[in-house]
Amino acid sequence: MAERKIRVLVGKPGLDGHDRGAKVVAAALRDAGMEVIYTGLHQTPDQIVQAAIQEDVDVVALSILSGAHMTLFPKVVKLLREAGAGHVLVTGGGIIPTEDMEKLRALGVGRLFGPGTSTSEAVEYIRGWFAENRGNEED
Amino acid sequence: MGDTNPKKDAGQLEAEISRLKSELDRLRRERAAWLGKYESTPKREALFETISGVQLAPLYTPLDIGVQDSGYTEKLGFPGEYPFTRGPYTTMYRTRLWTMRQFSGFGTAEQTNERYKYLLDHGQTGLSVAFDFPTLMGYDSDDPRSEGEVGVCGVAISSLADMETLFDGIPLSDVSVSMTINGPALMLYCFLLATAEKQGVDLRELRGTIQNDILKEFMAQHAWIYPPEPALKIITDIFEWSSARAPKFNTISISGYHIREAGATALQELAYTLKNGFTYVEKGIERGLDVDDFAPRLSFFWDVHNEFFEEIAKFRAARRIWARHLREKYGATNPESWRLRTHAQTAGVSLMAQQPENNIARVAYQGLAAVLGGTQSLHTNALDETLALPTEKAVRIALRTQQILAYETGVANVIDPLAGSYYVEWLTDRMEEDAEEIFAEIDSMGGVVHGIEEGYFQQQIALSAERFQREVEADKRTIVGVNDFTGGNEEMDIDTLKIGPEVERKQRTRLADLRARRDAGEVERTLERLGAAAQGEENLMEPVLAAVRAYATLGEIRHTLERVYGRFREPVFF
Question: CB 3.0 to 4.6 Å from B375: which of A86, B370, B425, B489, for a disulfide?
């Protein structure tokens, strides 16, 4: 049986216009064989969660370089849970200090990646998570 | 260059020509022989090409710049003279060093006002305002969309009252202010003008710059509000009003910086930015303005990245291309219209989070390239900017880096010191030729606005970013501390600046106070009047100034115009 493709929503929440990283990561995940949906810029957490549910994704990957990560990550996690999609992995990257990464982790956010990360590291992390958490599901 | 001594007779000239010919033959022969030796020697495994993908020869000689026709007067000329390749001003840094202008802003207007005074006390010579994301997008600090972002990436300015606080005790008559603001440039420019008025400054003498370059926002930086056509109409309004009322103010800073940071190569940055500049010129001419009335107030802003010589060539090529197009194509006759003046900033995207102290070295080399390229002002990045907004100490080191460059290295002593370098001249010519090809390609797709709507620029920039990342991940390009020389990556003990949630609370309170204390009737009347002006073809500057003086907020003005113009929707792809 063919393995199901991992579905990832790459999102840019908030007013941050820096999309270089989001687009590079989206392309790398696609090249690694994942199904990738990119939201475009300036999305509210509501819009991101709606798109995630509509597209039935396994992973929501947020890119935040605006310093608003402590507001935006918890909101997306909360809204996903409220919508009954608490099983979706919320991960991401940007300019996020290590101590904030730890705080977000405690709130249920997955691994976060900082500047200088190789895209293959992100690919491996998502594959690993999927194998562990969703790998036994059938399409 | 021919010798024009009239006393020379024909025989002497013939002898000279034959000497030059044999010199040329010898050069060709010897270069071929040298190349043979070069080819047979083993080389290092490395990419000998620029980040733009230009293949580099191992050596440049007079043959590469055309020894028969060096074209000195046509291609280089003299500093301050057409085509300005050697610099926009006659005496360059011998008269005045570049302006050391550090981009700065965070938290509330009070906090940033304090930082400005600190920078001015330490020898900075101009100010450059960094706004927070809500301000950049035209939202008030108390808008729901601003939540979590107030004062975080820059200073929060929602009204004239905030702007007055920002420049409290800083005389706008003496200190020139540059503001990185685009989508809502009209509103923030009017906040600044009204603040200057209140300080008693004659607007005819006011110096400063607004970035006001919406085309590159659509391409790369993404702080837009309205669709391209109304956005360009507003920019033309600003040109028109300012040429009469604030003639010393730079009404636009046509920026390659953000295009580059988003992933473009130096060549793409050069070509897209100049093409945007030509588009603004065409809009002004379409409005019926005389090109020589507004072109002298157009200024530029380049990124300065790691590829040292390519950066220098970019600055030189840009000046020559701009001068040629303005004179030949747009019919400008005032030399001020031909003269490309520029600000430069070291490449934020080249800073690394790994061993952040190494960033001091990167910034120093980039700053050197900007100065060798002949920049008029410079921002040097702080070493910690890849982690957070910079601390006072990091900002001081960045400023000191410029001061070392200016006062210790001697690079400001001789004008355009790399002119005549076979490599630099060849690269300058090459960048000009390649940029012309890109201009033709953009023309063939129907111009810049069409390219933006189709997502052409956005796509090209993203492709360059991906290519670079792939090359790094395949170890074709080395980044110190990232894919090589990683010893020491574990130590990370630098302090970073943190912005707390109290900034947002303070701003909300300030705005609530302002809304309670201003004359609500006057705000309503001026906003209504503005909405009516936007419905017609009227210049919006005076109606916006009236609303600003009544303390209408940024968000209120934004929404008034949005009801008429609508909002830009980006073409989404990756």
Answer: B370
B133 vs A: CB within 8 A: yes
Position B2 scores a pLDDT of 46
Searching chain A, which residue's CA lies closest to the CA of residue B486? A116
E strands, chain A, are: 7-11, 35-38, 59-64, 89-94, 112-113
Instruction: Write the CB contacts of B486 (distance below 8 Å, at least 6 apart in sequence).
Output: B354
Domain boundaries along the sequence of chain B: 74-473
- In tens, the pLDDT along B34-77 reads 999 899 989 888 888 888 888 998 888 888 877 556 678 889 98
B4 in helix, strand or coil? coil
Is any Cβ of chain A less than 8 angstroms from the Cβ of B152?
yes
Which candidate from A16, A27, A120 shows the least CB-CB separation from B133? A16
Of the candidates B152, B153, B572, which has its C-beta nearest A38's C-beta?
B572
CA distance A39 to chain B (A): 7
Q: What is the mean pLDDT of residues B95-114?
A: 93
ipTM of this complex prediction, to 2 decimal places? 0.90
Q: What is the pLDDT of residue B23?
A: 86
HEC profile of B201-227: CCHHHCCEEECCCHHHHHHHHCCCCCC
Return the CATH class of domain B74-473: alpha beta
Please tell me whether the peptide bond between B83 and the residue prior to it is cis, using omega within 30 degrees of 0.
yes
Beta strand pairing call for B177-179 and B208-210: parallel
Residue A102 structure tokens: 């730890």
Query: CB–CB of A23 and B136 under 8 A?
Result: no
For the domain made up of A7-133, give the CATH fold. Rossmann fold (3.40.50)
Query: Rounded mean pLDDT of chain B?
Result: 94
pLDDT digits (tens, 9 = 90+) for B425-474: 999 999 999 999 999 999 999 999 999 999 999 999 999 999 999 999 99
Distance from CA of A138 to the nearest CA of B (A): 29
- Answer for the pair A36, A30: CB distance below 8 angstroms, yes or no: yes
Instruction: Tokens for B450, please give them.
Output: 């069409």
HEC per residue, B283-328? HHHHCCCCHHHHHHHEEEEEEECCCHHHHHHHHHHHHHHHHHHHHH
pLDDT one-digit tens code per residue, B490-547: 776 677 888 888 999 999 999 999 999 999 999 999 999 999 999 999 999 999 999 9
- Tell me which residue has tokens 């992995």: A89
Helices B185-198 and B228-245, packing angle to 10 deg: 20
More reliable by pLDDT, A52 or A99: A52
Answer for the pair A111, A102: CB distance below 8 angstroms, yes or no.
no
Q: What confidence category does residue A80 fall into, taking pLDDT thresholds of 50, 70 and 90?
A: very high
Ranges of each domain in chain A: 7-133
